[in-house]
Amino acid sequence: MEDKKEKYLLIDKPEGWTSFDVVSVIRRQARLETSNKKIRVGHAGTLDPFATGLLIVGVGREATKHLDDFKKLSKTYQATVRLGTISDTDDPTGTLSVTETDKMIDRAEIEIVLKKFIGDQTQIPPMYSAKKINGQILYKLARAGKTVERQPHHIIIYNIRLTGYTWPDLTIEVDCSAGTYIRTLAHDIGDALGVGAYCHALRRTKIGDYKIEDAEKIEKFK
Length: 222
What we know:
Largest sheet: 10 strands, mixed
Order of helices and strands: EHEEHHEEEHEEEHEEHEEE
Number of strands: 14
Number of domains: 2
CATH class of the largest domain: Alpha Beta
Shape: globular
Radius of gyration: 19 Å
Oligomer: single chain
Number of helices: 6
Structural class: alpha+beta
C-alpha cells in the first residue's frame, strides 16, 4: 500500500473466502504500515464464500464513508447454472437434491428462456444472504432454521449471454443492476426450464467501470 491513509483497492476474492476475510487481511496489512494505528477498512458489495471475483475495498475513514456509492453500480457476473439439481441455498454449499436426470434440453430452448429474464422485474432476496431485515442478517436466521417474510425488490437484468452449454451445466454472463441475486436467477431459470437448477459457480467480473482484470490477488497483502 503506497498511500497509507485513504484509498480503494480492487481485490480478486478467492473461492472459500468471505468478504470479511479479505477485509481482515487488508486491515492487518494497513496497521503494520501505520505503526499499528487503527485503520478503518470496509468493502462494497458482499460476495458469497463460494463465489470469486471483484471486491472493492476501502481503506481509511473517508474511503469507507463512500463505499455505498460503489454498491449502487451495475454488476457483471459469470455463472455456471447446474440443471436437474436444486439446492436449499441455491448454491453448492447447501443440501443438493437431484430433480431431473433424463430430460435433455436443447440450446435453442435455453436461449428463449434466458431472453425472458431480460428487463425490469422483482426478485425476492434469498434467506441465505447477507441482507438485513429488522436488523437481523438473513443467513444467520436461515442457519437457525428460521424463515422470515421478505419483500420483493426491483432489479434490472440488462443482458444475459449464454456462453456455453453441456448438460447439465450452462454458463452465462449477466449484466444486472445492484441488488440482483444470481443464485435466485439460477433457481428461477431452472424453474422456467422445468428441471430445477442452482448456481454451481459464480464470478463477479465488473462493478460499474471497474474490471476484474485490474484487480490484485489477496496473496499480495498476506
